[in-house]
Every structure is written in structure tokens, then in C-alpha cells.
Amino acid sequence: MTYTEMKQTLNMVSDPAARLELVMDFGKYLEPVPDGAKCSEIVGCTSLVEICNFNGRLYGRADSAIVRGIVALLLAMIDEKTFAQIKKMDLWGEFQSLNLQLGTGRVGGVNSMIRFLQNL
């Protein structure tokens, strides 16, 4: 599922709880991390989150359903972009445009993931 499709799907739902359920469903679209990928744990997330690089392509995994969905959203945002292009993107602004009702801890984790992605 592309980021555009994810965003369109979210925009069709107004109920905050239903929107978070959709985010959890997006986590099912994360591709498995290939053997031999170089993985980095994201510091600042309350859940275990890893972003992995395999031959210049990024993969992710997390130990919570909602965080897997957030990782899927962020990776879809940057799909097929170079690391230089990712650094120039306003990932935080784009993520905020999704209007997800996340707690403070989750928002801190999202910030940590975005910082990691923009410092590749």
C-alpha cells in the first residue's frame, strides 16, 4: 500500500479510534526485514523499534501494533526516495497532516523515528 493510499484511507474516517485501528492495519503491510540487513534500534521510543537498511532500501519492525503502523506510514512516505531527498522532506509536517490522536509518548517516538530517518 502506498503512502497516498494510506492517507486517502485515513481521510475517509473521522472517528479518532477508528483511524488508529487503520494505522494498526497498515502495520500488516511492512515487509519482513531481510537476513543480513543492518538494523538500528530507535532510541526514544517506548516500544522496540528498528529501522533496517538492506542494499539501500529501508525496512522496519516494532513490537506493538500501533507502532508497526506508524513505522509503515513513515516508510511509505519515504519509499523510493534517496537519503538526500529524505533529509529535505518535512516528515513531521506530513505526519501531523494525518491528524492522528497519539499520546505524548507516541509523539516522542515518532519524533525519534523522523530524526533517525533524516540523519541517514
Question: How does this structure look, described?
Answer:
Helix content is 51%, strand content 13%. The protein has a 3-stranded antiparallel sheet with strand order 1-2-3. It has helices at residues 3-11, 16-26, 65-78, 83-88, 91-96, 104-118; strands at 38-41, 49-54, 57-62. A hairpin with a 2-residue loop joins strand 2 (49-54) and strand 3 (57-62). The protein has 6 helices and 3 strands, in the order ααβββαααα. It has one domain (3-118): Sufe protein. Chain: A, CATH 3.90.1010.10. The mean pLDDT is 95. With 120 residues, it is an alpha+beta fold. Helix 2 (16-26) packs across helix 3 (65-78) and helix 3 (65-78) runs parallel beside helix 6. The chain starts with a helix and ends with a helix. It is globular.
